[in-house]
Specification:
With 132 residues, this protein is mainly α. The protein folds into two domains: 44 residues; 77 residues, no CATH class. Helix content is 85%, strand content 0%. It has five helices and no strands. The model has no long low-confidence stretch (mean pLDDT 87). Keywords: Membrane, Transmembrane, Transmembrane helix.
Length: 132
């Protein structure tokens, strides 16, 4: 979407000024738009993944282990808040771990949605009980 808007905008502006050479501007503009969309998508995926890790660290680690069996993640322990914080700093600072976290989030997202739906149902039931 972004790349199309950038490409069409660049083509229109350059065609007004330069005539039919505007197609080159379309290629350049759409490439810039694609790069911008890819960067935005990556940052959004990382943000969602880190939020999921903050809320469900053991679930996310389990999915990282399952998705990346050869990386030795089964040795990571998250039994104390200090261990969770230490591992989170690796997730934030090292691109390899950050990439694995994003991949693990893709497999864990349906389970996280299910957990959140159960929480929501519990809150709704409590609110309905208060109204009676």
């Amino acid at each position: 979407m972004v790349q199309g808007v950038c490409g069409v905008s660049a083509a229109f502006i350059s065609s007004v000024a330069y005539g039919p050479i505007g197609s080159i501007a379309f290629a350049i503009g759409s490439s810039v738009g694609w790069i911008a969309a890819a960067i935005y998508g990556w940052r959004t995926s990382v943000a969602h993944s880190l939020i999921a890790f903050d809320n469900y660290p053991k679930l996310m680690l389990m999915h990282m282990i399952r998705s990346f069996r050869l990386m030795g993640l089964e040795r990571v322990k998250l039994d104390s808040p200090e261990e969770v914080a230490r591992f989170r700093s690796r997730l934030v600072n090292e691109i390899m771990y950050k990439s694995m976290l994003v991949g693990a989030y893709e497999t864990a997202a349906p389970l996280i949605d299910e957990i959140e739906a159960r929480r929501e149902a519990k809150v709704i039931a409590e609110l309905a009980g208060e109204e009676e």
